[in-house]
Amino acid sequence: MKSVKSTLLDRRSIRRYERESIDDSTMEFIYQAIRNTPTSYNGQQFSVIDVTDQPIKEKLYELIGQKQIKTCSHFMLFLADFHKITLAAKAKDVDMPEFTETADGIIVGVVDAALAMMSALTAAEASGLGTCCIGYARTAAPEQVNKVLGLPPHTFLVCGLAIGVPRETPDMKPKQPMHLTIHRNHYPSDTELMPLLQAYDDEISIYNRTRTGTQTTNDWVAHIVSYYREAMSYRILNALRRQGFDCRQ
């Protein structure tokens, strides 16, 4: 088992995996870590679908387009889930408010699912496994992915996590410096931020030009903004509405 420090500070995204299974005791540890995730109100507004069936992974790969989905040992899908509490409330004749039609309801579900994913990631990394978070699982083809997973109303996919035995050790990507990430007592002024942002943009450019493996000319600012521009074409709100999350307030 890796130390907490190594688990958190040496983590990197793994996209190439050995084709071997993960032992049951390790998976049980990951599952227990997920179960023990802190959640809003202890409502546990999340669920996880652990996909190990290769044909299903192949279907998801075709829809999402990330190769690690079909090569990892376990592809976990983390859901915001209000279906369970809705079902239980109905059985007890408890009036269920339209919480899923509020911004806070959606945020609660996303936060719970994201925390659960981090619990799984940390447990997997501590066990010597590799992981990769896959946001495209949410955005690439939400309607088709929902159908493959059989998602009921009042659930939606937040993110995917590939877990497996790593077949690579990629270079560590530079993260924003501490003073750009952690602020004391108040948010810094733009004058304070700009030199740090410019220096980080330059650092990412150098990393992308010199890293081991595929090298690019990407910077940080324009490259990330291009992802935002692409995401403007996603129709996530429509998909959320069809799952019972019609945000009105």
Description:
Helices cover 49% and strands 12% of the residues. It has 12 helices and 4 strands. The termini are far apart. The model has no long low-confidence stretch (mean pLDDT 96).
Compact summary:
By secondary structure, the protein is an alpha+beta fold. It contains 12 helices and 4 strands, in the order H-H-E-H-H-E-H-H-E-H-H-E-H-H-H-H.
Summed up, the helix count is 12
Which sequence of strands runs across the widest sheet? 1-2-4-3
Low-confidence stretches: none
Largest sheet: 4 strands, antiparallel
Question: Could you tell me the number of beta strands?
Answer: 4
The rounded Rg comes to 20 Å
Could you estimate the helical fraction of the residues in percent?
40-55%
Give the CA-CA distance, first to last residue: 45 Å
* Average of pLDDT: 96
Q: What structural class should be given to the helix and strand makeup?
A: alpha+beta
Strand content: 5-15%
Order of helices and strands: HHEHHEHHEHHEHHHH
What would you call the shape? Answer: globular
